[in-house]
Amino acid sequence: MPDKPAPDILAPDKPAPDKPGGNEDGESKRGTGKNDHAEHPSGKVAMATITATSENIESLITENDTVIIDFWAEWCGPCRGFAPTFESASEEHEDIVFAKVDTEDQQALAQEFNIRSIPTLMVFRDQVLLYNEAGALPPQMLGDLISQVKGLDMDDVRRQIEEHGDGHDHAGEDQAGQDHAGHDHAGQDHA
């Protein structure tokens, strides 16, 4: 698991330059886990979303360049409404691993990631948590977010994290800067 998230870099309403993903050879790295391949209307073979569990979540994040995780539950109306958008994005972006965590089935995992509201979307690139927000995104906003993630200079992101490094783990913080241990980091500059 990553030590700390990146500073507040991404917002779904800010466009970023589009940059191809994948490894150095331009090939995509897709994760391991439960998955199905489906024929995309374009004729390409597209990978459906992967079911993430406590058994495979770490390898999904560490063995893939970019991972987008949707924390959801069957009873959640907004989660069900977001599912087609998430699935469509997974078919369009074969260079990204799209994973879903059923918070009812994986309660310990949801607790480990400090999930308080669903749906919650997390985006990791190069094992760095770049985005962690509750709420369903409309297709255009999810597309903008993915473009921003692909366009990031990860060396610059790591430099910002290093400069921000204060010995605290901010992975469990909420928007008010409160982490699970009750530390107040709201006054700290995350840029």
Characterise the protein shown here.
The chain is α/β, with parallel strands linked by helices. The strands form 2 sheets. The protein has a 5-stranded mixed β-sheet with strand order 3-5-4-6-7. The protein has a two-stranded antiparallel ribbon with strand order 1-2. The radius of gyration is 16 Å and the shape is globular. 27% of the residues lie in helices and 18% in strands. Strand 6 and strand 7 form a beta hairpin. The chain has a domain of 125 residues: Glutaredoxin, CATH 3.40.30.
Question: According to CATH, what is the class of the domain at 37-161?
Answer: Alpha Beta
Radius of gyration of CA atoms, rounded to a whole number: 16 Å
Q: Taking all residues together, what is the mean pLDDT?
A: 75
Topology as a string of helices (H) and strands (E): EEEHEHEHEEHH
| Helix/strand structural class | alpha/beta
Intertermini distance: 22 Å
CATH homologous superfamily label of the domain at 37-161: Glutaredoxin
Largest sheet, strands/sense/barrel:
5 strands, mixed
Number of helices: 5
Helix content: 25-40%
CATH fold-level label of the domain at 37-161:
Glutaredoxin
The low-confidence runs, each spanning 5 or more residues with pLDDT under 50, are: 1-9, 11-46, 173-191
CATH A-level architecture of the domain at 37-161: 3-Layer(aba) Sandwich
- Categorize the overall geometry: globular
Number of strands: 7
Looking across the biggest beta sheet, what order are the strands in? 3-5-4-6-7
Provide the β-strand percentage band.
Answer: 15-25%
